[in-house]
Each structure stands twice: as structure tokens, then as C-alpha cells.
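pinning this so it doesn't scroll away 📌
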Amino acid sequence: MTVDSTRRGREGFGVSAALRNVRRTVGDGLAGALDAQPSPQGARGGADSVLAATVTALVGFGVVMVYTASAVLATVQYRDPQFFLKRQCAYVAAGLAVMWAARYVDYHRLYKMTYPLLGLVGLLLVACVTGLGHSGGGAARWLAVGPIHVQPAEMAKVALVIWLAYSLAKKAERVKTFTVGFLPHLIVAGFFMLLCMKQPDFGSAVVLLFLTFTMLFVAGAKIGYILGASILGGVLGAAAIRFREYRYERYLAWLHMDQHRQDLAYQPFQSVMSFGSGGPTGLGLGRGLQTLYLPEAHTDFVAAIIGEELGFLGVAALCGVYFLLVARGVRAALRAPDDFGAFLAFGLSTMFGVQALVNLSVALAILPTKGLTLPLVSFGGSSLVVNCFAAGILLNISSQGARPLARPTAARVSPDVADGAVAESA
């Protein structure tokens, strides 16, 4: 072997190593996935341990914060300070079991489940808006199944992400067209958004729209289509706020919070007070006083109690953990063996990030009240179990991702052979 050929071989290996983590479309592999066959790459290695530890830490942290945020309310209403803690522990057990099961089921099997899952969630959403929904807080967002309350809007986010990943991977380059690659996805997302708005659940509708546009952008849809639809969505959203009296009043109260701190803006005002009283390091776990004044502090506004009891440093650490969760999810997407896995991982990671961002923004009164939970932390069975299921899918995708290749050891070449190779090349 000549020196030039040896150099070319090393350069070729370097290019291969540089491209090994780039997402790629696989023709035969994608066809195999459509038949729901287990991926032959599934045994390459274990799931992302950092991702698993991050999810588990958030769930455990949520149990602690739900207890400290709900003890006063539980004592007053149920004469049991651990009432909500017991329920949250039951939800955590169910959620971790679902996550463990999803982690060991090949994500390619979701191909055959895509349309049944989408249809089931659609029927549940229709049931909510046709009189079967259980009302709470002025909205019919839950379906009562015995003692269990199911929130279909939480399922709709994961179901839509799965369907978008399926459709975008199947259409490949045709996603750049309007009638095939853009409009059908907008219609399905719009139908789900309409059902959420009828509950009403404006926050979930906004999350669904953002997920759809983000996944279309990642798949390569034309920017002009996305911008045009975004402008249209913004106009319709503004109209939905302006021409629904309770939304418009809530919006005005948010703009002038100091004037409405005893009525419509009472909850966000008390939430901001919680963050302010926490200071840099907080008052300490269980020592917060805003649980006496902040309604439903263990659900949508648990971040405010975190701010009061753990302070700015605690909230900053929580934001860092969510950033790590999203980053590891995107890492799984970039290493996925096919487009379906890449789109699925990216969509689920976006779902976690967007919900956390919106929830924290609402708690800080940066946005009006939306009714979205803090993923994996807030009290609630539907949200926790669905988010654990999404985390399990991410773990399964990460277990099938490409692994770094070992660099081969350069073979020793004797000086005589090397001199002969140089002379021959000359």
C-alpha cells in the first residue's frame, strides 16, 4: 500500500466519522418500519441514561413540590394533608410503569398504531365537547371513567406528534409541496385545535399549532407556507381572544394586573408575589406562605411555589434540567436510524420544551393564564402519565441510535516497507 492510499483511507474514515450522527432517510429501512417490524438496530446499546435520570429526577422533584404546595389545601378541604400526595404517588407509579413499557417496545410499532391512536383521541375530544366532558374551572376538559379523570387534550399532543412523524417520514421530499406536504397536516392539526378551543382550552390549541409548524419546518416544508399559515393563525388567535368576552377580559386584566389583583388577575398576581418573596435562595421547602393565598398552587402554578421556597437559584436549576431534557431528546433525534424516529424524537422534545416554557411564562405573568401544566412536575394523572409515555418513546429511540465507531488502530509499518512505498509512489 502506498503512502497516498493510506492517507486517502484515513481521510475517508474521517469523513465517515463526521457523518455518522447525521439523520438520514433510509429507503428499505423505512419500508420495514411501515410493516411494524422491530428494528435490527435495537440491540446496539442501552437507552440514554442521562435522559432517563433527568425524567426520573423531575418526577421525584414533582412529588416533593406537589406535597409542599398542596398540604394546606388538602388539610382544609379533605382533613388530610397528604391527600394530594397519595394521589400523585399513585400517578407516578402508573407513569413510571408506562415509561418503562414504552422504553422496551420498539417505536416502529407505532406505525400501525398511528391512525387508530389518532382516531381514538379524536373521539375522546369530541366526547368532551358534546356534553360528556366533566367540567372544572369553567371548561369541560376531562372525561370521568369511574374515579379516574382523563384529559384527552394531553393525549392529543402526543398523538399529533406521532401522526406528523409518520406522515412526514412517508412523504419525504413531497413535504415541500402545498397540497401533499403542507395542507393535510394543517387540516388535521386544525381539527384537533378546534376541538380543544370548544372545551375551551386555548393553551393546548396553541401548543398543537406550534408543534405542527415546528415539525413541518424540521421536515423541510417551504418557509413561505409556514409564515403565511403563522400569520393566519395569529389573526385567528387574536380574533378568538377579542370576540370571546371572558378571554378578552382576562387579557385586559393581565395587561393591567395591578388594577385587577383582587379579581381576574388574582392568581397571576399572587404567583408573581411568590417569586418575589423567594429571593435568590428561597424560604426553604415547606416554609412558603403563598400556599395560603395562591389557588390551585399544586397544579398549573407549582412553579410559583418553587420560586418562593427555592428562590431564583431553584427556578434557574429547574430551567436547566428542562433544557437538558430537550437537548438529550434532540440528540436522540439526530442519532435516530430513520426519519420516523428523528421526527418523532424532535416533536416530543419540542412538546416538553414548549409546555415548560409556556407554564413558566404564565407563572411569571409574562403570558396570560393558559391552563398548561409543568411537564412531569405538576399534579395531575393525565399529564404525568402521557408525558412519561412520551419520555419512554424518547428512551427507546435513543437506544436504537447510531453509536460512535471505534477508530481503528493504525498498523505498524517497518521503515524498509515505508521507504519502498515512498520510492514506488515517486
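📌 and the second one:
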Amino acid sequence: MSKVRHVLGISGGKDSAALAIYLKNLYPQMEIDYYSSDTGKELDETYQLINNLEVYLGKSINILKGAENSHEDPFDHFLKMYGGFLPSSNARWCTKKLKLEPFEKYVGDDLVVSYVGIRGDEDREGYISKKTNIQSIFPFRRNIWSEDVIDKFLANNRKTEILDSLPKFDFGIKKKKFEVILGKEISPSFNMHHKLNQLLDLGVRETNYLINDFLKSTKYPLAHDNSEFPLLNNEDNLNRADIFRILEETGVGVPAYYKKIDFEVDGKTSSYARSRSGCFFCFYQQKIEWVWLFEQHNSLYMKAMEYEKDGYNWVQGESLEQLSAPDRILQIKRDYAKRQERLSNKSSQFLVDILDDEESIGCASCFI
């Protein structure tokens, strides 16, 4: 059996940091390699979080850099290579060059299980490598498996194979119910999402054992590991509040850029913060986050502005110079405050926080 490496990427964000703590505390027997991809354009709080984590984990975090032999920061090196063309949602060369390529070079051809901190209250899929030697696991969700694994496990042409594996397990009175669900055909009216949820509702642990047994017939990394995968018994489903609690209770702390700062507009008080980690000039930022950067880290805002030229802007249809005009800042704050008020009136503050998270998914989402 080939040795399987277990790795976890630290993005500088709350979720990946909390995941490192979570796995250390619940599964201390697991040997996990930690890494972080440094673009050279992170906020200072990101580097502080990495230092705090190293102390708590008692282990160094490997720092990966694209263009590692260059005399420039990785981002600046590749910006020149791309002729000054700034990255955007339609041309995410920064993700490829600064995150994915350094990671895939780091793992090489080794069999790797990569742990990703997507929470149970998020409706999105994380980074799934196209390389067959890398398998993603999501410990914060009740479904710890990646979408590609689920697609194969629940495919109609695998139904008989999965049903034949049932006698291996002692599922007690649940066995007959699992047999019924597993016997259902995937169809437009009963898709894989429906089938998976029925299985998980019946038993998360049992579903994990069935999927893990199926994986032994595949080329996924876990098929090559002869030890029992400890997360098979994990039935947790963590949300945003759980993440903050983990960081605060362990003393690692929440990065300062997540902490809301009050501002006044039209005689009313609202608040803003940064909703994610990543480069200080990330194009996925909301406009209110650009205002936050302008007011809380003005020198970094000015550096971001210096990158704009020849029609290459961070914000589509608007330069940072235009965005930082007093009247424009006032309008952005006013619009944001009204939107927050509407959301608060319609739902709980918890939902407002979740919406803030999901509106700003960027390159760090590959690893958090």
C-alpha cells in the first residue's frame, strides 16, 4: 500500500484556520502537513494568523510561492508576465499561478487527501483537483465527500454493486431502509442531491462507511490507505458561529479584518468588515469592502490604485480613483446600509452574515 499524504491549506481565512484546529483536537493521531500559498499581497493579519496557528499546532506551516526564484513578489512577477493585464473573474490567472500551480507542485505525484474548510451552512463546492492523485474531504459538512465521489457512488450503473456491499455492514434496523433508498433510480424527479440527503438523513456514519467501501474499488487516494479513515464516524455539521467559537476559545483569534467597524450614514449606524481573506486588492471584494480598505488601510488602497492603468481596473466599470471620491463613498455606504437593513428586517442576522460570506468567494475559496 502506498503512503497517503494528508494536507490542509491555510488561506489566512477563518474557516481553514478553524479546520486545522478542529482536526488537531479531534484527530490528533492524523499526520497532517499544513501549507499556505503566499502571494506577497496579503494583509498583515493573515501572516499573524499563520504565526498564531503554528504556535497552537506545534508545527510549521509550509509557505508556497509561485515564481519562487524571482526577486519580486509572486503577484508582481506574474503581472509582468501577463503584460500588466490584471486578473478578473473571467481571467483568474492569479488563482492558477499563485495558488493551484504551487499546490500541485508541492504534492507532486503523491497520493494526497486535501482537507477543505467549507462549512455545513454553505451551499458551494470547494476545490476539486483534476489530478487523480488528489482527493478533497470536507470535515465541516455532514457530507464530507466531494461532488465527483458522490456522482460516481450514486450513479445508476453502480446501484447493484453498492447494494451487494450492504451485507458487509451491521446497520441493524436501518439496513432495510438503506436498501430501499439505494435501490431507487436517479431521475429528473429524484436527483443525486435528493438521494444523498435521504441517505444522510437515515445515517451519516453508515453512509460514510458505504462510500468508503465503494472507494476501495477506485483509484482515489483513500483506496490506497490500509488504515481506517477516522472521519467516517464524524457526524458534525459546523456553521459560521462554530468557526468563530473555535478560533476564540483556542486563543488563536479571529483576524481583525473580520471584526465589524461602525460607520454613520444619513444619521444611522451601520457596520462593515472584510468578509474573506486573500490579496488586499482582490477583485472579488464588494464595493463596501473597497471602502473599508480605503478608510482602514489607506496605503494599501493607494497601492491597489497604482496597478490600474490602460483600462485595467479591479472593479468592473469603475476605477479605484472614481470609487474613492467622497460622494461615491457616501453612496456606496448608503446603498450598503439600506441593503443590510432590508436583509435584517426579512431574516436573522445569521443569514445576513452568510450572504456576506457567499458574495465574496475568490481564489482563497480553493482552499478554505
